[in-house]
Design a protein that fits this description.
- The chain is α/β, with parallel strands linked by helices.
- The chain is globular and about 50 Å long.
- The protein starts with a strand and ends in a 26-residue tail after the last helix.
- This is CRISPR-associated exonuclease Cas4.
- It comes from Desulforudis audaxviator (strain MP104C).
């Protein structure tokens, strides 16, 4: 079974999203926030094409957008927003529409993409970037051995949840449920 890289992000935010995707597929309501996020991604990609690399603390490189990545070994695939290839290596970049500090779910999604890039290029990826759209800030994420292990364990947990068809508990932060597209299917939360 192939998972999506975004499943790592979703599972760490709320495992029920992944449950409703694979175990009990239901109609997913497209929210205004989701539509806005797509528009923002297109706009930031347009702007990135005109920019230098100073934000990433690089002197040169080549940007590659919406790269399809896949690892049979990890059992995961996804489309990375952007990555930069230069003489010192390659660096994944994910665009995030958040004005807060990036969440752990964002970090581990990026780590998963870094692992896929390592397979594609056959070179280690030491760090990547989360580009925070509202503040136009770049957040550096170190790709550590512990982070890679955490991603592998998360992928295993997702596969186990799907295989056992076990309904996961609600997230500890009920505020996450207010704008969730699956809110109507969780009868035990707000």
């Amino acid at each position: 079974m192939m998972l999506k890289v975004s499943d790592v992000k979703q599972f760490l935010y709320c495992p029920r999203v992944v449950y409703f995707t694979y175990v009990m597929p239901v109609h997913r309501k497209v929210t205004r926030k989701m539509e806005y996020g797509k528009e923002e991604h297109l706009e930031i990609e347009r702007l990135e094409r005109r920019r230098g690399f100073r934000s990433y603390d690089l002197s040169e490189g080549e940007r590659r957008y919406r790269t399809k990545l896949c690892s049979e070994r990890l059992g995961v695939e996804g489309v990375l927003d952007m990555h930069i290839v230069c003489g010192s290596g390659c660096f994944p970049v994910e665009f995030k529409n958040t004005s807060r500090h990036p969440g752990l779910n964002h970090k581990y999604q990026l780590v998963c993409y870094a692992m896929l890039l390592e397979e594609q290029y056959g070179k280690p990826v030491r760090h990547g970037f989360l580009y925070l759209i509202p503040g136009k800030r770049v957040h550096v994420v170190e790709i550590t051995p512990n982070a890679r292990t955490f991603v592998r364990k998360t992928l295993d947990q997702i596969k186990m949840m799907i295989a056992r068809e076990s309904f996961p508990p609600a997230p500890r932060r009920p505020a996450r449920c207010f704008e969730c597209e699956y809110r109507n299917y969780c009868a035990d939360v707000v």
